[in-house]
Amino acid sequence: MIQDEVESQLSAMFDGELPVTECELLSRRIDRDENLRARWSRYALIGAAMRSEPVATAPSGFARRVTAALYGDDKSRRQRGGRTMFLSVAVSATMVVTVAGLSISLLRDAAVVARGGDATQAAAAPVRAGAALQAVSAHAGVLAAPAVAAIRRGSNGEPVSYVTPASIANPNTALRTELADFIVAHSEYSTPLMRRNLLSALVSNEDAADNASAGVGAAGAPASSAPGAFDASSAASASSH
Amino acid sequence: MGADASDLSLVRRVQRGERGAYDLLVLKYQHKVVKLVMRYLRNPADAEDVAQEAFVKAYRALPQFRGDSAFYTWLYRIAINTAKNALAARDRNPVSYELDLQNQDDSSDMISRLKDPETPEGLALTEEIRDTVNHAIEELPEDLRTAIVLRELEGMSYEEIAASMDCPVGTVRSRIFRAREAIDRRLREVFDGGLGRTEELV
What we know:
- The structure holds 2 protein chains of 2 kinds.
- Chain A is 71% helix and 0% strand.
- Chain A is built from 9 helices and no strands.
- Chain A has helices at residues 2-14, 20-32, 34-50, 62-114, 119-143, 145-149, 173-185, 192-213, 232-240.
- Chain A is mainly α.
- By secondary structure, chain B is mainly alpha-helical.
- Chain B has helices at 3-15, 19-41, 44-61, 71-92, 95-102, 104-115, 120-139, 142-152, 158-165, 169-195.
- Chain B starts with a helix and ends in a 7-residue tail after the last helix.
């Protein structure tokens, strides 16, 4: 009964008299049902024979081959398209990652340059600062033992502050340069005003040292009393900003 | 809805992206197109290839089909042009035929086909189909025969047939279906009887 209805629909669809919604459903059924396909094809033969048109039977599987030629093409095109799309996505992703990496690298370099130094300087700055502190300690131990003794210490024995010796018998220019480098290396963390104060203090310290070396000042005077004493703890607190 | 309108309905469905609708058009016109192309190429194998190419070309050109002419008229032109192009290509490159002549069996078969475009089997089948259909129509009850003749020969829509026969459209649909079923039953007997196989039509 259902099959009769389907075949009745097939006949109506062949004549273009079936509603569109039913046509779509029936078309899907015809695609799966070889008997319906054969019947549809024979309906065409019946009409041709009635109209005395030339009648010939197409070779076996002709319609299927046409379908394969059409949709096989589409399928391979879709596969090619899929492969192309995959490659495009892969290439795009690679380019995005590369550009992002380059951008980050360039931005870092630009930031370093904007702060007054290049990446190498920035990397070398802590090392240089450490060397400067070591040099300060060495000078304090070897050249200005009395000044070291004058360093104020807290209850736990740690120095309250690190004070450069005010009177150095033989002031070392390299040491001052290293201190200046230390300040510059940490300038990125300090305000311009603080930086200027620190550099002024360093210059004053240099003047005091010069005076001492000239015999004007008293050698071995307590560092804390030196007018241009450079307090490293100030620099440390400045760098914490 | 006439035959042209029913084809146009299928065409519109194809244009909307319904692939199955084009399959139905191929199933509907495959016999006519193969027969048409055979007039030019004579060789059944070549004719099948060219007919297939014509359907593929038609499918690809279908988005531009506006329905100014009947679908089959449009398809007919494409098939003729494709066949002529195939003939011209074959004339430009006759080497394959010389090679074919080296094979005695193939060459004799081809020459016989070129002399007679219709193979005896094909002619017999064609005659058998026509006779079967005509006899089946003669045996139909009057109301069924009238309905199917008005539809297939006059190209009338169901509504027009209903008005002509003074009956509901549903009755026309039923009569045409029953008429086709009766004819098709006889036709299947022919195919199953040895002249052809049912699946050859698919």
